[in-house]
Amino acid sequence: MPGSNQCRKFNRRERAGRILLLLKALLFVTALQALLQLQAELVASSLETINGLYGGTLVIPCNTGAIKAEDILITKWKYDKGDGLSGDLLVKQRDQNTSIIANDEYKGRVSMAANFSLLLSDARLTDQRTFTCMVVAGANIVEYPVNIVVYKTPTELKISDKAEELEIGKPTKLATCVAAEANPAANITWLKNNTPLVADGDGTSIHASVLVDPITGLSTTSSVLEYSAKKEDTNAEFTCRTVEDDLVSQPVTFTITYSTENVVLQVTAVDPLVEGDNLTLKCVADGNPAPTSFNFHLKGEVVKVENANTYTITNVTRDTSGEYKCSLVDNPTMEASEEVVVKYLDVILSPSGTVVKNAGETLDLGLHIDSSEATKVSWTKDNFKLNKEPKFTKVTYSDAGRYECDVTMGLLNQKASFELVVEGAPVIRQLSKQRGDDGQHKVLVCEAEGSPKPSVSWSINGTSLDESPFINGKITHRIKVVPTANLTVSCTVSNDFGMDTRTINVSSRQTDGDQTRLVVGVVVGLLVAAVVLGLAYWVYMKKSKQGSWKTGEKENGSSEEEKKLEEKVEENSQKAEV
Question: What are the start and end residues of every segment in region (Disordered) (predicted)?
Fold first, then answer.
């Protein structure tokens, strides 16, 4: 029994020792694996990475100048086949040609450049591995591993599976954007009018998926846009774009459908709209698709128009003015209205045409205006502007002429006119005479007034100088005469309504000379008589004053003599005047 107990104790110790050895071995293996993994990561992180384009030629550098070319004995390129295996590609010994060793997928695709770089044509995704350049220089062997990454832009970027139409507020699969055969897989962004769309779960959802080709390894990315359209999205342009290469698809637009919310009635006509013009009513609804039938309410009358949205009223009148409406056939409460105003301007002037009046008569002038708005009135006479409307209490010859009133209302205007003719027997207003410049002849002037134009005649023959234009019923006639004796000359004016005559005395040139000399003689005689009388009076007064100093008795007598002398002087003066 004691022996058996000892045996059991020994077995327990043996089992415990074995377990301990197994645990130590497990810990060693785990630590070794971690160390190998860390070493691999450090090696991988120290590798140079070369990026190449799919289908192009990759240039993989070797040595990078660390060893001089003349010191290199052998250069060999190999690649990592995975699972710790490597494949040889080519080798070159100094002063010898390059030997191609590859006999697998790299056969015919590899060569060596003058600087020992590996040239790999027709780059593929399977070339994304580590290529190692081994250099033998003397007793040293150095390896240069290079990691390869192959990029490929999408073959195309296009939008497909486009929705036929979008309904406002209803989430709809808008379209699918496809970026085909890319590496790495493309990331796609959707845009509306060049503004990126963001999936918000409330009207905008984006779902992306990637499909890898098992043969080429290229990735095709599909992005599906689900969108809830708004009215303002009508004519909006949607595109998609790749983030990596900034490729942009062709824009697409969608038909947005929505019910009519507003109706507008448009009135198309010339401005101003006047009688005789045409006007077109157009009913515009904002629904999509737009309604095709409308009701037009024409001042109590309803006209239905199908497959059109316009109605034309021809040859409008002032009675056309009023309120017009249009509405949807399937929803009469959806309507719009507009006020139509036909502008009019009627002008009646009384009298009109040619008006004949006798001088001194009254002319009643009447202007009647019928218009849709306020007006302005201006008057002209013979194209000259008048400050106010003419009044004719008693017409005169100067009132004769063409009168025109111009009535304006905005852009509209109407004109009316009449011609006033004033008739009457002629009257001579003035008959005068003037001495000619040479002093030999005289000019007789006869000024008359009347209408129609009076004819002028003289009772003496003379040379006609001129006749003034017949304006406002007035005429002036001049003649030149050389009278040889004193004459009485008459001027006679006449027309269909009567005549008038006036006379004037005209003296001859000789009579005028005798009269002049007579006047001069009388004046000179009077002047001489006045001088003599003045001198005598002065002498007499002087003597009278000297005598009065001696005796005062003679003063009274002297006064009487002075009176007699004054009376005599006055008598002589009267004779001289006669």
Answer: 544-578
